[in-house]
Write a structure and sequence with these properties.
There is one protein chain. By secondary structure, the protein is an alpha/beta fold. About 25% of the residues lie in helices and about 25% in strands. The protein contains 6 helices and 15 strands. Strands 2-1-3-6-14-15 form a 6-stranded mixed β-sheet, with helices on both faces. The longest helix has 13 residues. The chain is globular and about 55 Å long. It starts with a helix and ends with a strand. Bound molecules: D-4-phosphoerythronic acid. D-4-phosphoerythronic acid binds next to helix 4. The site of D-4-phosphoerythronic acid has 16 residues, from helix 4.
């Protein structure tokens, strides 16, 4: 079974007529968007808010109608992937470089559903390097401030140059010891001048759709 497809498509069951849907970014939510595109062709009336230029492009290819925060105030449901999911449904996100818009959309949603294959499940966050979005202007000083928190930032590169987010910023991927106090780390990071946001999504997921040891799709809430 393709776990990504199974969990991605399961999430579509929670999308109802006339909903405003936060459209996540990545290879798992790709299956959610693909099935939503088919249902839209069959008459499902929804409006999507994309979390990245990549997702916006895919949604347009699938003819999923799009809206924006200029037109709506609240999102009914956001569906997104994750890079790590802890036992308490806390997340590390940002592997795809879209963490800022993903967090904005997630915060604006009445319900956040995460679709994650079994490889993403961890006992404690921190095996996946924590993505931190920073302003390019002040990178060296920002890296020094981050290192004082006991984590180790590395500039994300793409094609031999710094990776640039949809918002024109850099990403530092930070190797962490096991993250014992994720709330504290998230707040400490975001207080650093030059840090825009980070990939810790603490207490935000309402449901995680994943696969258990018997290869069954399960809902964790
Ligand atoms: O950047 C993100 O948080 C994305 O949701 C992404 O990293 C999810 O991973 P996936 O491509 O394995 O679904």
């Amino acid at each position: 079974m393709n776990e990504k497809q199974a969990v991605g498509e399961k999430a579509v069951e929670f999308v109802k007529k006339d909903m405003v849907v936060g459209l996540g970014t990545g290879s798992t939510v790709f299956y959610t968007l693909s099935l939503l595109g088919k249902l839209v062709q069959q008459g499902l009336s929804i409006k999507g808010i994309p979390t990245s230029v990549q997702t916006e492009k895919l949604a347009k290819e699938l003819n999923i109608p799009l809206t924006s925060f200029d037109e709506i105030d609240q999102i009914d449901i956001a569906i997104d992937g994750a890079d790590e999911v802890s036992g308490s449904l806390d997340l590390i996100k940002g592997g795809g470089g879209a963490l800022l818009r993903e967090k904005i959309v997630a915060k604006a949603a009445k319900k956040l559903i995460i679709v994650a294959d079994s490889t993403k499940l961890v006992d404690q966050l921190g095996s996946f390097p924590l993505p931190v979005e920073i302003v390019p202007f002040v990178m060296k000083a920002t890296k020094r401030h981050i290192q004082k928190l006991g984590i180790h930032p590395e500039l994300r590169m793409a094609n031999g140059a710094p990776f640039i987010t949809d918002n024109g910023n850099y990403i530092l991927d930070c190797a962490c010891p096991k993250i014992l106090a994720p709330n504290e780390l998230e707040n400490n990071l975001n207080m650093i001048p030059g840090v825009v946001d980070n990939g810790l999504f603490i207490g935000m997921a309402d449901m995680v759709i994943t696969v258990d040891k018997n290869k069954e799709v399960i809902l964790r809430e």
